[in-house]
Specification:
CATH architecture of the largest domain: 3-Layer(aba) Sandwich
Largest sheet: 12 strands, antiparallel, barrel
Number of helices: 20
Shape: globular
Radius of gyration: 38 Å
CATH topology of the largest domain: Rossmann fold
Structural class: alpha/beta
Helix content: 10-25%
Distance between the termini: 72 Å
Number of domains: 3
Strand order of the largest sheet: 32-33-34-35-36-37-38-41-42-45-46-47
Strand content: 35-45%
Amino acid sequence: MNKAQKFAVSSRNKNKAVINKNIFQLSIITSALLFSGYTLAYSETGQLGDKNSWESQEYKNDWGLAAMNASSAYALGYHGQGAKIGVMDSGALLSHQELSGSRFHAVKAKGEYGSTGMRYPQELGGHYEKGQAFDVTGDWIKGVNDTHGTHVTGTVGANRDGEGMHGVAWGSDVYVGNTGATDSNNYGPYQDYQYFYTGWKAMVDAGAQVINNSWGTNPRIIDAGKTVGPDGGNTSVHLPVDTTQQTEYEYFYFKKIYGDNPSFVDAAYDAVKDTNVVQVFTTGNRDFKNPYYRPLYPYFNPQAEKHWIAVAGLKQTADKTGYEIEGMFNEAGNAKWWTVVAPSRYIYSSVVDENGNPGWDTFSGTSMAAPHVTGAMGVLMSRYQSMNALQVRDVMFTTANRYNPDGSLYKGWTSADGVPDERYGWGTPDLEKGMYGPGQFLGKFEYQLDAVPLDVWTNDINQAALDQRETEDLAWLADYKAHGIDAGGDYNLGTDFVVNDGNPDPTSHIVDKEDAKKWRQEYYQKRAETIQAKIDAGLYDGSLVKAGEGTLVMTGDNTYRGGTTVEQGSLYGFTESFGTADVNVNGGSLSVLNRYNDQFTQKGQLVSNESHKANININDKGTYLVTAGHDVNVGNMTLNQGAKLDVAADNIGQLKDVYLNDNSIQGTVNADNLADNRAKTKMLAANTNNAAADDYALFQKDVSVKDNTITGSLSKKADTSFASFANNENSRSIANALESNAKGQLFDATLPMSERDLRNTYQSLGSDMYLNANNASVVNVLGLTRTVKDQAIGVGHGRYANIENSNARIWMTGVGQWGNLDYGYSNMDTDFYAALVGAEIDVASHTKAGLFFGAGSSKYKAHEYGKIDSNDLHVGAYGVSNIQNVAAINYGVTHTNQDRDAKRTLWVGQDSGYNSSSYDAKITQLFVEGAYTQLNNDQYSIEPYAGFNWLHVTSDNLHEQVGNMQFTTKTDNQDIQVGTVGLRGGYPFAAGNVNLALKGDVSASHLFGDNRPEAMLFLSDTGEAKIRGGKLDNLFGIGLGIDAQLNKSTTLGVSYQGQYNSDVNSSGVNATLKINF
């Protein structure tokens, strides 16, 4: 693909295409119809590009949306669509209007408990037994679940329907699991591994990319007198986790209770460890400086960190003008590197009462904070469709907000800019800044950009967090190496409190010191190995690897130090946007810009500040792309063996100027030092415009290297126009329309195409599939008419059941025809089926008249061009007159109505549009046929005949699109005449008591009049082109059959019928039952 195209948002044929914004506007309206029970459909008021329009009363009912700047994401078209979010909680009432519709899924978990225990040890309740079966879904269960899960699920993704409130990711698919309990479920070491592993794994298998875990309550201790936390909260009955030693005790406590078996928190990791799924956990609702073990799990198991998010609570300030940490809840502490803070106080969402009645209510807690974060992940996943959830997690962390609306820092924020805080963690997810790319790389960021053709990152990318993490990790490692596990200080063994765990032994929770030493050694060793591995891999310097065929544009002033590598696709950016280390291009292409007009995230015109210059190495199979109209400066530049140079336009306007005004444009790259290490012969090849598959069809490219400057230029190819690449009549018609109009979306799209893409565009748009379907229908109707005429005339005595005084008959015919038509520019297979019922009566001694009706189907398969399925209705009237036993005249009228459903993919270059269209086609026919009957006798029948048919063919207009381009096909009406001559005969005989007759028919037909279908193709806003189908010409027909008289009143006939010429091969079988009465 030529590079000017890649700056335009397109809908390339990928399974996760970039949102077409017209389609998006429809989808947000229809999202309100995902649930039932409303007399009035919700009409979306939000407008793309206008964030205020999204801030409806429903939006405002959850202040958390504004705190995360959600309306900014909605205004760019991202609301969770395509994302899959899991919620593990106390079920959800999926009949609630906020949670109903096809987006919500109850996940089933079935198995057996692997242990014996209590869900609510603090209440001596919720018993389960090893080997006991469980079989639950995410639907709310009366008497088992409470309202908690319904509230949490609403915050994640409730419908935006104009009522109540809506979720953060209101376009996502939500997969709900069931803890089998209420929110009193205790997340101490009391839950069954097998139950929770089964539930979490079921969500992962269903496709969930992030799983919310707001459920449960913390371990309790026996009240031994009032204690308060750092912010004055009552902590008297709660297991303390203020210090590292106290959190370490909870880790020991888990190890003691589960012994050699994995814990339910291990189950959370085991369910996702070989995937890209993220688990979200609440820090806890107590006034402690650290989270409980569940969110703190990666501190003791660092291999799990990339899969974990911990969530602390945020609240509004007293005057509601800003935000601050909710000090009554657990803070980030030792989990700060994977913690964010989110709205947690007075959150309005969906609820269910104990009898199953739906409603809305306001709750508080970190349980309410976590679904805001999980929902934010969903919105970001819809924005970054080529990132996995682990990478989206990093984007959310590094773009999190720490500022109030007035620009002041959150109260009590202590860390430096870009570094997590011990209370707040990274800050609050910011769905405005999060739209503009990562804020930092937290190691090696490998971006496989395939799901969408274009991504744009305008954030500045630094590595402040990595630098701080390195400082802290190396200090910890040095302390460990110097002092071993004694670096952790004294042990908290649980001797100064009694855990309220339902065990009557008040010492059952106390940890043996030797066990504590062993368990500390285990996790210290894990932490040390993880830090050393990061040192060895250079992961304390952020780096980017660009893979995938898509185009990434970076415009930030970026200072990450780990380097940039291009392996595939295209990377564009300012000279200061690639960090401070070298850029290595091993495949794909790199281009440095001095400006960029961001329409993707609507930042507008951006200009390079050249704060530092990129150092670039173009290696074997890598390409440096000079962008015309850009004069840029770089540092050191090396062209190694196998390196290629190319040039492309920045925008369509440049190419228009070159093509229409015969101008030329150029761009330059000025290096402080340019080393050209290519062999001379390769240099010549690389700097000469040898036509390649992705070269411009219409433009000449030239690249030269002189001293420290590379110059690329574009000019119009001599003696070349759009028609130069048209290889048939329809293609030339489209090319001429482009050339003569020279404007509009299609012109803009085709101007930068390669020769291959331009030819393919002509071939796709100029396909005569619809026209040749009409041709096929004419052939099928002629065959159907032959069947009706044949039964009406009758050849051979086996046709007639001899009943005295009989002057009326009914008949039934089944027809099947199969064929291939190679008319025009598309080859088509056809299947035609019809069932007819008719009745006829003798209206005079030598004349009979009949009526018939029927139904059937047609299938037209044009292979790569598409297919059409049709439901057909047939009606008609006919008559036969015998003129003095010398001649017979057969005449009538038929009408066929086809209700067609067409499916085809249109291509404009490498952009595609899958179109499904419904339209009608109609064929009305008059026919007359005369046969000479004087040669018939009792032994055989021979009838030469001649006939004439007139057919009138019409079809509706078709409307299709590729992206925002609209294509309309307006088919001309046709009047077709058919002249036919033929010979038919019959031979009657008997087999036992059954009268039979063999019959045969040969014919030749000539079609004239409007026998070549035509249509006007309206090319979006780029004019129109005449499209022609194949010409219906001469047909040779043959028929063979046998009729049997079953009794005096009934005959049955079976026959074969074929129609042929050099472009048509049509064969059919029909069976006719005729009853006299």
